Amino acid sequence: MKRREVLKTLLTAMLPLALPPQLVLGTVRKAAIEQAPRPNIILILADDLGYGQLGCNGNRFNETPNLDRIARDGLRSTNAYASAAVCSPTRAALMTGQHPARSGITNYLYRHDEHYLAPAYITINERLKSAGYVTGLIGKWHLTGDYSKDRGAPQLHNWDEVILSETKYIASGAYFAPYFFMPEVAPREPNEYLTDRLNLEAIEFIRRHKAQPFFLFLSHYAVHKDLAAKPEVIAKYARKPEAGRNGNEPVLAAMLESIDEGVGRIMQTLQELGLDDNTLLIFTSDNGGEITNAPLRTGKSTLYEGGIRVPLVMRYPAGIRAGMVSDTPIVTHDFYPTFMELAGVQQRDPQAVDGLSLVPLFSGRGRLRRDTLYWHYPLAKPHSLGGRSSGAIRAGDYKLIEFFDTDEVELYDLQADISESRNLAATMPDKVADLRDKLDTWRTRVDASMEPMRIFAMTEAKRR
After folding, report:
1. Where residue 291 falls among pLDDT bands split at 50, 70, 90?
2. Euclidean distance between the first and final Cα of the chain, in Å?
């Protein structure tokens, strides 16, 4: 029985009880999840893909028909945020459900970095595995810096399958075989394109595990620089009259097309296997893009909207009403409790979870009990792309950025000024004081370090 049918049946049965509406909805939601079959979960993560690069988000140069179809068939978020402005902390938040400030991974992990995601954490794949899911990671991990020490390798986090995940530092990438960061990987065909290979491995994983619930994390290396794509696809975009103008980059567009083609093949495979209705399919990015994110300000490495607002589309025919557009602010670490709720996982340990389940949004009528999001990004020196040591808070429509290097603050009304072009700090001192106080209180609560990156020895006692 589809989840929507379960909900209808339970609501009908409970109407005569005259229970308070909030109690009815909470009870119905819990019962529906318990009765409905546990969904397969596929999370597809792009690397450095900006909010405005999808057709469904207004892009008219790039061609993303399959990702646009996910938006039409399910939910598109207009206020989705990455947990950080660079990749490693966002990936840590995804795996743990914790804000990066709590785990201590607040910047990308550089070559020979001593930081890593400690195996003591109970990662989301381990949560789902405890509920009978088979779990697979295909692609980028980047939750360790010094790969030679093998302390933070994904295999130490109990994935059932780890495929095409880097074993050496990835640097600026290599999109055609041979892959210098995976020297042990043999290409399946001459001049193999990495994105195509990842898509193929994802389809084969689905076919292998069609008879049991599965969690697949397809983590693309694209569209991270150095940009590279199949020449014939680049040529197609280069011929467009608007190529090279207003941020229209033919190579990025070609890279994104290969991701999109893979999404289409995955959806086709799910349909062929009869898994389409009961699979939650999610697509998002780990941070904002390097290339223009207009009308959002700047991009990757900054806490302006261009650095942290990301595309997000979700499709789940048995549980998400089609054609929804949500403006509820959500963040990467919300996926952890979302997946736990859908899988029926009950947490019986003290590991903190900062995210909220997104399941209430699936009906189009629910809300999240939160109106504030936080970011923490201490840096020893500015990022090469312009990001500065800073923190940020979004409370309602107001967003404050606090620069640690100069103690300056900037305040924006995102509802009226999505481009963050009008700094209101001087004219709204009371709002500034309120948001700074909330940000400082939050940093204390999560034990956020103001050091650029601390050595964080994770133990059972420190999971808080």
Report:
1. confident
2. 39
Token reading at 416: 């009226």
CA–CA separation, 217 vs 275, rounded Å? 17
Taking the C-alpha atoms of residue 193 and residue 251, their distance in angstroms, rounded to an integer, is 14
Q: Are strands 409-413 and 398-403 parallel, antiparallel or unpaired?
A: antiparallel
Q: Cα separations (Å) of 112 from 105, 108, 277, 389? A: 15, 12, 44, 22
Tell me the pTM. Answer: 0.91
Q: 446 and 354 in contact (C-beta within 8 Å)? A: yes
Q: Minimum mean pLDDT among 87-91, 198-202, 361-365: which range?
A: 361-365
If you search the block for the tokens 């399946």, which residue do you land on?
188
> Which range (11-15, 44-48, 57-61, 437-441) has the least confidence?
11-15
Cα 20 from Cα 413, distance rounded (Å) = 36
The predicted pLDDT at position 36 comes to 66
Amino acid at 198: L
Backbone angles phi, psi at 258, to 5 degrees: -65, -40
At residue 459 the predicted structure's pLDDT band, cuts being 50, 70 and 90, is very low
Q: Sort 312 into a burial class: Cβ within 10 Å, 0-12 / 13-18 / 19+.
A: buried
Give the whole-angstrom CA distance, residue 361 versus residue 245: 37
CA distance 34 to 268: 28
For every residue of 1-38, DSSP letters joined together read: --HHHHHHHHHHHHGGG---HHHHHHHHHHHHHHHSPP
Q: What is the mean pLDDT of the chain?
A: 91
- The answer to whether 308 touches 298, Cβ cutoff 8 Å, is no
CA 342 vs. chain centroid, Å, equals 17
Phi, psi of 113 (to 5 degrees): -65, 140
- Distance separating alpha carbons of residues 53 and 68, to the nearest angstrom: 11
Identify the residue whose tokens are 């939650």.
280
When pLDDT is cut at 50, 70 and 90, the band that residue 150 belongs to is confident
Residue 359 tokens, joined: 């399941």
Residue 8: HSE in the Cβ half-sphere, 13 Å Cα cutoff: 7
Mean pLDDT computed over 236-265? 97
What single-letter DSSP state applies at residue 116?
Answer: B
d(Cα 430, Cα 452) in Å, to the nearest integer?
Answer: 29
Beta strands in 345-421 (DSSP E): 372-377, 390-395, 398-403, 409-413
pLDDT bucket at 23, cuts 50 / 70 / 90 = very low
